[in-house]
């Protein structure tokens, strides 16, 4: 098989794979403009009439702006906590090696293999004991505990590539350990910080189980994903409202991924390979 035929075959395979990946997006988007009977007739067809009012009704029923604000608050607080505390922990562990710190690092890495479903009951019990259950701040701390292992791992690998001479020079110039970290080290970690921040945004925004356990009993605390359940009844699912709500819920994550996909790849390589 010559090179031209190989390229044609490869292109055909890639187009097929892209079509398979994009098909769910097509189905959600197209059917979000249909009436419920029309969705039941044919999910693949283009709408005869584009019912834009589906989006207005979906936004009203799910209290869109309030639930979006709740999700944004959780995403912002949890991301800030990861950036501030988990990054500092990764830096400390790599710059202060010892039996205790090495043990803590390996325990954190081992925690990455533990599924949340196996520890969710103890987590909920602990949050209730600390009166964090049913609050946006409480679930943000839960996300910090669940996600700090990944952030520490990425930071640990990235800091390996930073010469210790920079820190020694900063100390000689009169920097305190905190000012040295924030003025010298942290700016050099901007790629890895951006990477895990983007990945965390996907996680916090799209998570259903944790908010359901932490906030599910309070409608005023609903996030975007929990709010979607208002369209599902015991005997009927209002697909004509649910699908527009799904489109609205995934606009931000998709936009963030498209804009920042190169940074995600660069940061993963930086954190996992360098050093």
Please tag this protein with its features.
275 residues; mainly alpha; MetI-like fold
Polypeptide structure, described:
The chain is an all-alpha fold and 275 residues long. The protein has a single domain, classed as Orthogonal Bundle (MetI-like fold), CATH 1.10.3720. Helix content is 75%, strand content 0%. The protein is built from 13 helices and no strands. The longest helix has 34 residues. The C terminus is likely disordered.
Counting DSSP H or I runs of 4 or more residues, the number of helices is 13
Strand residues, percent: under 5%
Mean pLDDT, all residues: 86
Largest sheet: none
Which residues sit in consecutive blocks of at least 5 with pLDDT less than 50?
Answer: 271-275
Element-by-element helix/strand order: HHHHHHHHHHHHH
Instruction: Give the proportion of residues in helices.
Output: over 70%
Task: Label the overall shape.
Answer: globular
Cα-atom Rg, whole angstroms?
A: 23 Å
State the fourth-level CATH superfamily. Answer: MetI-like
Q: Which CATH architecture is right?
A: Orthogonal Bundle
Helix/strand-derived category reads: mainly alpha
- N-to-C span: 42 Å
CATH topology: the name is MetI-like fold
Query: Regarding CATH, which class?
Result: Mainly Alpha
Beta-strand segment tally? 0
Number of domains: 1
